[in-house]
Amino acid sequence: xxxxxxxxALVMFxxxxxxxxxxxxxxxxxxxxxxxxxxxxGDLQQGIIIGASLELIFLGTxxxxxxxxxxxxxxxxxxxxxxxxxxxxxxxxxxxxxxISLLAVFVYQVLKLVYTALVEKYDALLDQGRDRAxxxxxxxxxxxYGIPFAVIAFFGVLFGTDVIRSLVDNIPSTVMHGMTAVxxxxxxxxxxxxxxxxxxxxxxxxxxxxxxLAAYLSLPIMxxxxxxxxxxxxxxxxxxxxxxxxxxxxxxxxxxxISVDDKDGFFND
Length: 269
Description:
Layout: H1 2-21, H2 30-40, H3 44-57, H4 72-85, H5 90-127, H6 131-144, H7 147-169, H8 173-198, H9 204-215, H10 221-268
Helix pairs in contact: 1-2, 1-4, 1-7, 2-3, 2-4, 3-4, 3-5, 3-8, 4-5, 4-7, 5-6, 5-8
């Protein structure tokens, strides 16, 4: 269990470090975190399945500025690790990810308070001309950011797996079926949150077209995705060509106007 805890902590550190340092390359998304946890724990397929399930739930969860509705990396990494190590159903990961991700937000806020307090120290170093010390403080803060979350993941897996395993073993079958049903409903909530942010009357028709393809023609998700991607590419090229044509027309109109003005100025002289 010690090796598993260390590997999960490493995944947590990588996810947090990359998203904090590399401009949010989306490493902390549940699909990526689930796959990484599954890989280090020797069950990549289950990690991808759990990550995909969690991705549907957190589909519309986006961090904007200081607003952090849920810590995706912590919830995804720990929920996936607990589910794989206890050999539980993916529904258990769904049940664990939500509270864990919400509790991790408090850790994030405390860490941000510490970092904000260090800004005054950073400015003082720059005013004193101690550029190397300021650079060292910056690098130290950058490297330290993922350590608290990695420590949480390490001790959570090391001491919490047995607790989660005993809890899962004692869950009645009826409750487990209920959790499975809730796990099937929560992705709809994720899509609803996403649609609330993206809904537009101009693209509403595509939503209903996709629904009809899945519900009445029984097309697989991959087939619908290929059709949607093809339509998106066609619309992009069509709009690009239209903008290019409008630009050419505008340039020709401006050239004609300049030519007429030159003739008028010649005859007026």
